Each structure stands twice: as C-alpha cells, then as structure tokens.
Amino acid sequence: LMAVMGSGIVSSWLSYQFIKGYSVLASDDKALECPAALPAGSCFAIPTNKTIDVRLLTGATIFGLGWGLTGICPGPGLYAASAGVMDSIVAWMPSFLFGSLVGGKIVEQVWENTTPSPGATKSKKA
Question: Helix 93-106 to helix 54-70 angle, to the nearest 10 degrees?
Fold first, then answer.
C-alpha cells in the first residue's frame, strides 16, 4: 500500500512540473498552460478549494466504506468488469452503480440548496 501511495505522489508531483504556475523545478516559460490535446478553449482545471468541510468528509467516508466493504478499488473494479470477470460484473458493478445513484441523490437532496464551500463552483442544471 505504501508503494501504491508513494508512486501516486511521485507521478502526480512529476506531472505538476509541466503545468504553468505549479512547477518547482522549471521556469514557467517552458510549462504548459493549455495542452494541444484538449479541445480548443479548454485548459487545465486544477482544484483550488482547500477547505475541509462536511461534504468532503462525508464523501470520503462513504467512498472509503464502499471500497472497504467491496474489497476492490473502483479503478480495477471497472477494469475487471470490462474484462469480463464475473465476480465483478455480478457483485461489484451493481453495487458501484447503486452507490453512484444514491450518492447523486444525496447531493441533490441534502446539499443542492446549501452554500457551496469557498472556492467551489456550483453546477447548474440545464
């Protein structure tokens, strides 16, 4: 687990070295502002909210409980389901979809009309 966490931190830190305004090693004149691979007019969307609030803690708790109860990380779970692993298709995928649906409903019902955290943007429905 430490190797997974360490490799995630190192790869994230290395990636940020190429983004304008976040590089520690290189000057900003060589950093990316809007990569060519993104659609025209699109740029990086790096979160700026540093507030630890009830929404963050609740979401992290629910995510952690789901991960712990199912025993599989969402990334490998999606991969296993797409690769045809029956345990993942029969047990994990329905739980993942149900949890996503319930989480969306909780956000709509509980937090839709609350004040967003500082730095957060509230999405508008079409």
Answer: 170
Average pLDDT (65-69) is 84
**Percentage of residues in the chain having pLDDT higher than 90:** 10
* Distance linking the first and last C-alpha atoms of the chain: 41
HEC secondary structure over the chain: CHHHHHHHHHHHHHHHCCECCCCCCCCHHHCECCCCCCCCCCCCCCCCCCCCCHHHHHHHHHHHHHHHHHCCCHHHHHHHHHCCCHHHHHHHHHHHHHHHHHHHHHHHHHHCCCCCCCCCCCCCCC
Compute the C-alpha angle 39/9/15, nearest 5°.
Answer: 30
Cα distance between residue 113 and residue 125, in whole Å? 13
| pLDDT of 117 above 60 | no
Q: Which of 113, 115, 8 is nearest to 51 (CA)?
A: 115
pTM, two decimals, is: 0.53
